[in-house]
C-alpha cells in the first residue's frame, strides 16, 4: 500500500509554514462521521455552499483524527496534538494530492464523462472486464470535484486498470478533474440537457467536458450523441492530441462501429454492426434505448482493447442491471411509493418512469411531480416533452405540483385524455405542496404505484408521509425528557470511558425512531443500533449522523447500508461472503462492520472458535473493517444464570484476544445490555448496549435507579351506554353484567396492539382518576370498559391504557407477556406524539 508522510503531503499541496508531526497518511476524509482509521487519516475541511468543514474539526478531533488540511485563516488554538496543513483552497489541495497520487501509476485509465450513462457504462465495463483485470473504479457515482479525487486515491500498485467518471455542472470544473484522473482512454457518452444552465450553450458545454480528454490517446464516442455540439475527429480535431485515435459509433452514418440493426425479442436485444468490414453482433438482456446505447459504448471499448469476439458475445449476455438509488415503500390502500428525490433533472426522471413501469407490472401508475427546476430548457418545450414521455411510458395519471407545471396543464390534459379515453382526474394540478396536502384525500390512491419526484424546495417528504401512513384517534405520548433522565441514570453507573450504544430497534421499542434518535444524538450517546436496515434508513433521512449498527442486515438491504452509512453486524460466513461480494461489486473497501459471536444465546453469531478464520478473510479481502466485536447475554437479569453469564463473557474475551492479534488494529468490545449494566459492572468493557432501560423499564428492581416512564398510551371514549342487569357486552356475549351498569366504548382494540388477553376483566384502564375493568372480549378496533363506579364520566373523555397510573410491567403481566412485547406491539396506526418538558 502506498502511504504518505504528512510532511510529504505538505509539500505536495504547498501548505504554508512549518509542519510538525510525522504521521503516516493512508486515508483521506471529508466527513467527520465516517472516521474508521483515525490514526492514518487526513481530514480535509472542505467548505461548500451549505456546510463549512472547519465546523466539524472538533468532532473529527474527538474521534481521534490528528491531521487536518484547513483554510489559511483558520484558528486552531484548541487542538493541541493536531497537525494543520494550511492552504488557501482546501478542495484544490485535495485535488492536487490525488493528482500527485495518480502520477505514481503507469496503467491504462479510462475516463468517462457525458450527460448520462456514466455510472452504468463504468459499472458495465467492470462487469465485462473484471475477470482478467484488477480494476480500480469510482464507487457508485463519485464523479464530483470531491468524489473524483477520493476515487483516484484508491489506486494501488496491484491495479491494472482504472475506470473513473467525471461530472461537471459549470465551466472550468473539468480543468481541475483532468489532472486527477489523467485518463489514457476517454469515453464521451453524450451531450444532454443536464446542467445546461451552467454553460453558454451546448457547444461550450461539450468542449468543457472534452477537457477531460485533452491528453487521451483513444477516444470513444457516439457521433449523433455529440453532434451538433462536437465533432471530435472532424472539425474539432485540433482540440485533441495529434496522436489520439478515435473510435466512434453511429446508427446513421459511417463510423468505426456502424450499427446496422437492433432486434428486440423476449427481453433481449440483438445488435448488429459493421466493424472493419465485417458483420458482427452482440445480444444483451435489455430492450430499452438507454441500456442499448450504454452497451454499445461498452462494446466499443472491448473492441478497441482487442477482446475476442466470442468472448464479447458471451460477456454481453450476462450484463446485469445497475441498481438505481430508489426505494419502493408500502403506502396507504395497498399502494406502493417510489420516492426519487435524489435529482430533479429530466433524464433521471425518464429513468425513474421506466423503473416505475417495471415495478408496477400491470398495476396503475401515478406520477406526482413538482416543477422541474434549472433544466436549462424553455419551459414549454420541457413540459411538452414530459407529456410525451408520460404517454410513452404509459403512465395513468399525473399530479403536477407547482406554478410552472400548472401553467402547462393543457399539454398534459390533452395527452392523458388521448391515452386513457376521457379519464377523469388523469391530470391534476396544484400550485404548491401545501395546496395539494390540503385537498388530497388518501382514498384517491388505491392499488397503484406512485412515483414521487420533487425538487427539494417542494418538500415532497410531506406528501410521502401522507401516503405512507394512516393515523387514528389513539395516541402514544413519548416523554423525551424522561428518556434523557433515564439515560443519565444509567450513565452514573458507567466508567467514564465506556461508550453507550442506544438500542432503537423496532421503532425504538415502539416509541418512534427518528424523534427518539434525535434527542439521543443531542445528548451524545455514541452509537445507535437498529434491527433492520430500513430502520436505519429512516434515521438517516431524519438527519441522524451518529454511527448506526444494523443487527440483522440481509442481501436486499446492502444497497441501503452503503447509501446510508449503516454498519451491519456480520454474524456468519454466509452473510460475510454475501456482503463482501456486494462491496466488491461496488468497488467499496474498508466498510465498517461489527462482528458478533455466539457465546451461548444460540441465536446469531460466529462460534468463538471461528475468530481466526474470519480474520483471515477480512485480511485477504479488505472490503470490511471491524469497528466492534461483541456478543449478547442470554440471562443478565437473572441471578440463577450468573454462572452462565460469566462463561459467556469469558468466551467473548477469548475471541476478542484472537481478533486483536490477527487484525492488528483496535475495535470496540461490548456485551452488556440494560440489566447487565448494574448487575455485572465488570463487563461494561468499551461500550454497553442500553435498551429497555432507556424507555423506563428495568426488570432489575434496583433501588439505586429511579427510572421514569417514557411512554403513555391514551385513547378516548367513543360512546357511553347504560345497560340493564343480565344484559351482555360484546362478541359472544362474554361480558354479562350482574347489575345495571354504565359501559364506555373506547377507541382501542387488538389491531392497535391491545391484546385480546386483556379482555373479560383481565386488564384495567385509568379514567377520571380511577381504574375501570375491561368487560367482554376485546374487539379489533374497540374495547368496552365498565365505568359504573366512576362518577362524572363523559363521552370524549381521555382514557390511559398505560403510563403513570398503569405501569407497562403491570400490563404485561395481565397479558402474560413481557414489557418488551407490549411496547413493540403497539401498532403503527397509533400516532406517536412527543413531549419535552
Ligand atoms: C435488544 C438488544 C439489546 C438491548 O437489550 P435490553 O434488555 O433492552 O437492554 C442489547 N443487545 C442486543 C444484541 C439486542 O438485540
Automatic annotation (TrEMBL):
Catalysed reaction, written as an equation: L-alanine = D-alanine
Residues holding substrate: 603, 780
Function (record text): Catalyzes the interconversion of L-alanine and D-alanine. May also act on other amino acids.
InterPro entries: Ala_racemase, Ala_racemase/Decarboxylase_C, Ala_racemase_C, Ala_racemase_N, Mur-like_cat_sf, Mur_ligase_C_dom_sf, Mur_ligase_cen, Mur_ligase_N
Modified residues (N6-(pyridoxal phosphate)lysine): 505
Protein name as catalogued: Alanine racemase
Source species: Hydrobacter penzbergensis
Swiss-Prot/TrEMBL cofactor(s): pyridoxal 5'-phosphate
Keywords noted in UniProt: Isomerase, Pyridoxal phosphate
GO process terms (BP): D-alanine biosynthetic process
EC number(s) from the headed UniProt entry: 5.1.1.1
Phylogenetic placement of the source organism: Bacteria, Pseudomonadati, Bacteroidota, Chitinophagia, Chitinophagales
